[in-house]
Amino acid sequence: MNIIRATDVDVLIIGGGILGVGIAAVVAQRGFRVLLLRLPDINRPHADTLRNQAWLQSGLMYIDRFEDRKHGLLLAKRMFHGGNAMLAQLGVQPPSDDRRGILRVKGVDDTNQLLADAKDLSISKLVNRIPHSEAESRLGSLYDSQGQYFTIPDAPFDEAMVMTRLREAAQQNGATLAETAEPITLKLDSSKKALQVDLGGQPVKSKVTVCAAGAGNISLRDQLGLQPIFTIRQTPLLVADEDLGTNAFLFADRSRGWSFTRHPSAPGGSANAYVIGTRVHRPVDFKPADARRILADDFKLFRQCLPDSLAHLCDRGRFTAGYEIIPDESTRTRYVEPWVDQHPEFPQLLFAMPGRATLGLFTARQVATSVFKHLSDDGHRGKGRSSLGLSNDQAWNGQVHMHFEPYFDFNDYFDD
Amino acid sequence: MNQLERSEFARALTSLFDDTGLFTRKEWADLIGVSPSAVSQWLSDATVPRADHLYMIFDTLKGSDVPQQPLDNFRRMAELPAITVSPHGKRMLPTVWAYMTRPAFDALSNQLAKLDTKEQEELLENAFKTKVPSHRGANKPVKIADAAALSSGGGLGSHPHSKCFLSHAVERCPDNFQVAEVGAGFIKPFITRIAADDSAGSELRWEELQQLPRVILFSQPGCGKTTVLRRLVSEILSAEPRSSTPIYMHMPCLATLLATSTLASTLKAFTADMVPDEITLLLDGLDEVPGNARKRILDSLFLFLDECPQTSVIVASRPLSCEPGLKDFVQLAIEPFSYSQVQRWVYERLARNYWNSEPRRGARVETYFYDLRERPDVMSVLRIPLFLAVSTSLFARNSVTPFYASDIISQCLRTLVGEWDRKKNVVRAPEPWGTPDHILKILSRICFHTLQTGHGTFRTDALEPWLRDLACDSTPIRVLQVLAESTGVLEACPDNEWRITHKTLQEFLAAKYVVESCQDVNELLKTEFRSQDFHRVTRFALGITNDGSQLLEFILGTDQLKEAPKMVLLADVLAQPFMAKHAVISHSCDTVVRWLETAFSNWTLELTLVRGKEADADRRWWLKAYSEKPKPSLESQTGQNARQVLKSIHLARSGPARPGFLDRLKSSAVPVLKHFGTCLDVDGQFRDRVVKDDGAERLVAEVVEMA
């Protein structure tokens, strides 16, 4: 298959999610020749970047997962303010106040826990109780008279715009971004001195290779005989694009354990593009994208978390099996933190995960620091664009938007 | 180090860390992903934090329940000139606040990223210095025109001394190409080196362009030489402090003046009170100077440069078919736009100049892009900014999208060879064969014959038999030189050889030859019918001709192609605007669909969806089909041909073949095709995919239309 006219590049990036494209932007900005390869999304959305909730998290929904709450605070600050920094640096509008989230709790214990969590997270001044009348006006049909309502600093952010800006930055600095019909294969030669990257039968040579393919990194490591060093948690998400009868942009019900975010970047700018999540998640073994299924038990639990008025969405909306990649102890990182690792015998091959989408640019800079160590400056910086030739079909130029297709072949259905 | 010895910046940052109580210093280091020793170095003025780290520290505290005073103190410090608050202030110019909030990928950040610390400091010093003492007249009043007048495109000729030299800079640009502002809307093209060594093709940063003392800037016609020169004039004029004074000259105009004067004395009228070292000469259109005057103008230039060697010169020209003798000049090329530059250009130009007040302008621009993505051949032509201007103008005025490939390319060539030279008052060949029509005729013939021979290049002597019956009494080499410089479609190569530079234009021009030739179309095409090049020639030919019935009948009847490739060709040529007899179009559509019915006869329709028809939002169309034993497999050559035909039918949705395809598909007894017909109502890119499963296959196809 004649995909790319193979030419030496400085950095090959495998994966075109928020991390891959972020690395491309940062590395190309230094003047190195960058080639990014990604699988296309249409009909085959391997990437999770544009399937998640794009939620600028304050940590209120995470803090209870930590034994040491100080870790929760660190992570929360990094997710939230790292996300703010990313939006500011890319010139993407930060979420306006009217898009800030509303949170519901029911009962005295839950209310007290929320306030305690807000204090631990040092955001008490941003978590404010609102009167029922205001909650009813903003939540519409989702308002439940039982419970207490608070405004929270969380908000959905325009993740598609972030991707678009990063891609523009990469392209303006000369990176070549391409979509390939077939996945990449990696092979290390027997002396461990050269990495063979095969793209549909055609070799691609690079000085440094970065695998930023999300769960796809597991397949890439497997090709090289490396064990996975992360656990995987499957968190089903439900995508709905019908009117939920509410004005809110983000709502979280801590007592029932469900939430939704509403997004501006659905195809056609539809105002009704919701991603719904629940507290349902479970550790799973890695499976390739086309073999992933949501377990029937999880489906039932998911449905129970939703209010009755939305239960019908479970039948009409689209599920995704959504993987969260969680580095294990051997990586010396904690829960969903950014993570960069190099091949034990071939350090010019790196693997990276952002942990959270809001940390895409933050992690990209960390990866770039590792990349630059392998690239000598002389003769490369400032040289500009790579001389790769791409046809219009191969260049990754399509509009970036959240995925709201009503079905895919895989990754959607329940395990009977 | 005691508190007083540290800078104001270090003290304010220490206060953020230590007086807010949110984290320990080690936790801060953890949070922003650096080592604790890095933090210590910041706080002792040994280094400074990266801008993004500083932003994150401040933003984290701003959103937390912490004492306000350290934040206020830091903010006050951050607004002061950076060099007054930190020994590393030069790296954070103009202020710490500007440093930490600067967009990560703006032009300045992109520039800084490629420099070492020392170079960064120098760049920032130059960029943010306020008024500095006048240096050798550098801040003298603008001599030629001011930057605002230049960027608005309206004031160039107003200066009493500028009329002669500058008027053409504005008036010569055709259509809306003129509004390729040199201000905010300017898109910096990629500039590469032309050299015989390893540096050939390497990119030159825009900022380096002004630093080279002698430059000749080549580009194909329409790639923006004049715009680049105008931009450079604007940048030189608006630089603070100004290091030189730009003088822009249109070279044919200069050539007239030099008939009675020297360059040095001509310039004296403008530069009497200027130091020649501080002049930047921008000489536009060397190719527009007649051949015999070129030597005279260049000799005059060399003489002037001998007298004033410090004067910077940038010459712009189309590629010349003979060596100009500028051996001391760095040779650079302006590259055609990349796809992303095309996108930016189109959006800015259409949205700003045509539909500024239209609320759904974004959606209208998207329709243009949809068609552009579906037509890679048109895209390859529109990478040339002049052609892009022509195309977007046609779209804005007549809703001509890239679907109208033949119309667009035809108009582009007419603009290039006819209107533009006429507006510039350039006569490239005074002989009767030098008219735009004649030039295109000769070029069409060459393109046809070079495609027929299948060689990428041809020798000068090959031209003679091709032009034998044309009324042309000039030598072949002269004809070729004129064709090359007036169109850019030809290029001179070493050893008396010539090369066609643009495949799509070559195919279009060959089609023009086929259509305009008195010979039988069938005779012209049938000998080379197996070549893919001639398939595209056939498509263009159908797009050009007044009646394509004969051409369609020829394709239907030819026995030179097997069934599947013939259907691919037929569907492809039908997927465009064209004119032919209704009965022939219907018959062609029927033939294509009948063939598809065989290919999809044992497929089951699994899922169909057409949505959003009434809504103002997105419209979507899906098809999912399954076959236990597909015959043919959609991954076989025939199967891939069938998928290609489906794609072409969808492409045909806006053309004259639409009713024929629509009627035939809707009445089809094959369920997959019956549903497929409904996708003709949805604009957007057709994407399909085949999933194999143990011999069985599933086809998934989709069209998504952005509202």
Features:
heterodimer; A: alpha/beta; 6-stranded mixed beta sheet; 9 helices; B: 707 residues; alpha/beta; Rossmann fold; 4 domains; 7-stranded mixed beta sheet; 14 strands; 11% strand
How would you characterize this protein structure?
- The complex is a heterodimer of chains A (416) and B (707).
- Chain A is α/β, with parallel strands linked by helices and 416 residues long.
- Chain A has 9 helices and 24 strands.
- The longest helix of chain A has 22 residues, at 69-90.
- With 707 residues, chain B is of the alpha/beta class.
- Chain B has 4 domains: 3-158, no CATH class; 174-334, P-loop containing nucleotide triphosphate hydrolases (Rossmann fold); 339-403, no CATH class; 589-704, no CATH class.
- Helices cover 49% and strands 11% of the residues of chain B.
- Chain B has a 7-stranded mixed sheet with strand order 2-1-7-3-6-5-4. In chain B, strands 11-12-14-13 form a 4-stranded antiparallel sheet. In chain B, strands 8-10-9 form a 3-stranded antiparallel sheet.
- In chain B, a hairpin with a 2-residue loop joins strand 13 (686-693) and strand 14.
- In chain B, helix 20 (405-424) crosses helix 21 (436-453).
- The longest helix of chain B is centred in the middle third of the chain and has 20 residues, at 405-424.
- The interface between A and B is large, with 63 and 62 residues.
